[in-house]
Amino acid sequence: MANCPSCWKNDKSFFAIRCPDCNTVVSFVEQLLHSTMRLIAGIISTVVFIAFMLWAVPTFVDWAETLEPANPPQAEINFDEPLDFSN
Ligand SMILES: [Zn+2]
Q1: How far is ligand 1, taken at its centre, from the CA of residue 49, in Å?
Q2: Using one digit for the tens of pLDDT, what is the confidence trace for 25-49?
Q3: Going by C-beta distance under 8 Å and a sequence separation of 6 or more, which residues neighbour residue 8?
């Protein structure tokens, strides 16, 4: 199913002359250009979204690492040495 250039519903067959929803006459060249532009716009928006996420996720991680921890780490226990109860 192709997208209608007039009503933007996806019920229209690609080679159909009229859209079944809005009854608009859509020529083959118009349908071809509309579908091609939608495809290109979809590819560009997908690439832009992936590039944005590749920038945003490391930027957010770098920013989050600058925050103070909610529970600061306590003194570490060294399990290799026996516990000293002398004091
Ligand atoms: Zn339509």
Answers
A1: 29
A2: 999 999 999 999 999 999 999 999 9
A3: none
